[in-house]
Amino acid sequence: MKTRSTPIALALALLAPVLGTGAVAHADTPAAATATRSGNTQPLADDAQRVMALQGAWNVRSFAGLQGSRGPIPANAFIRTADLGRLTAADRDALAAAGVTLDIDLRTADEQTQSPDLLASDDRFDYQRISLMGTEKMDLPKMMKSFPDSLGEAYVQWLGHSQPQFKQVFQRIAAEKDGTVLFHCTAGKDRTGIIAGLLLNLAGVADGDIVHNYAISAHYLEG
User: Is 121 a catalytic site residue?
Assistant: First the structure.
């Protein structure tokens, strides 16, 4: 069984104080790290190593090779993806072969009903649904429209609204000692992107690389 690296373990150790205060404390970033990727919605040459090609899912990516404060993130740490309701048997086998042991579904109960996560019924994977929409029904698109000049401000509001759910996600990740953690929403962009961004921030990845990792979802969701 694959084991998560020390850098990721150290990052996860920071989750309790981070989510307890609602602030995201950035780990030390290597001096050589720059934000040259920021705002680039097209994949760069090294992004290809992070893409996992599946027949029935899109925007499936690891964090392989992204530079954190204590070295590169290994390929077997995390996989982010979109909806898993169209996975083929070969796709499920590929995810198992990649070391995935935990599947965290960030969608609402209605979304899960409309497109059931096909890993939930596969006993090779532990499945947990933790909706990031909070305890009350939250209209994320409407919230984002309320902040037309600042998507970041909308995300701050979202984090505040759903803090217990975000904390639950990270506690579940921290409890998974071995294996690869997969997490997803519907498009693998907003909810998934926020979780990915927090994990990368805690691992000390440069801000520009975090923004780029989020932005290129637009490319992988085209067509």
Answer: no
The whole-angstrom separation of Cα 151 and Cα 146 is 9
Q: Return the CATH superfamily for domain 6-26+36-220.
A: Protein tyrosine phosphatase superfamily (3.90.190.10)
Domain ranges of the chain: 6-26+36-220
- For helices 6-13 and 163-175, give the axis angle rounded to 10 degrees: 140
pLDDT tens figures, 20-30: 433 344 444 34
How many helices and strands, by DSSP H and E, does the chain display?
10, 7
Catalytic residue among 185, 200, 203, 216: 185
**Token digits of residue 83:** 């909806």
* Strands lying side by side in the sheet with 61-62: 61-62, 78-81, 180-184, 100-105, 126-129
> Is the pTM here over 0.85, yes or no?
no
